[in-house]
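> example.struct
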């Protein structure tokens, strides 16, 4: 399997004045797909909070190819495209497909785990790191080099 996909339908609130899905709605559906993926691998958001970690984003890069309109069904794909072996930093890729399977948009996000109490990036618990290491990888997956200590 090259990516996991989640089905959605464009809502009224997702539209821009031109009648197609607005740019930020794409990002919102990708965030929802990430949460769905983590739930699917037995790491629901509540469990992350209990572990005292939460995801933070450093960058979202969105490229648009084909519009999606009101009430159309579409799919959001998810893969891990980059990962540090300890799971502390990652990049996820989302391909968004029209109901006909055409690529509508590609969104790459870079992020890390935040220690919720200390408000600093952190290495996640081993259980979460292991799930990420075993997670579904993109075809061009890369390991992020470990930190170099001075």
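> example.seq
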């Amino acid at each position: 399997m090259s990516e996991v996909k989640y089905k959605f339908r464009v809502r009224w609130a997702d539209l821009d004045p031109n009648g197609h899905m607005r740019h930020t709605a794409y990002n919102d559906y990708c965030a929802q797909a990430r949460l769905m993926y983590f739930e699917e691998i037995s790491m629901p958001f509540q469990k992350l909070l209990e572990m005292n970690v939460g995801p933070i984003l450093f960058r979202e890069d969105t490229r648009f190819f084909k519009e999606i309109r009101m009430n159309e069904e579409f799919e959001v794909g998810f893969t891990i495209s980059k990962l540090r072996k300890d799971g502390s930093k990652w990049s996820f890729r989302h391909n968004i497909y029209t109901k006909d399977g055409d690529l509508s948009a590609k969104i790459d996000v870079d992020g890390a785990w935040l220690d919720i109490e200390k408000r600093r990036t952190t290495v996640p618990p081993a259980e979460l790191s292991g799930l990420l290491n075993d997670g579904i990888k993109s075809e061009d997956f890369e390991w992020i080099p470990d930190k170099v200590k001075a």
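> remarks
The first helix runs from residue 23 to 40.
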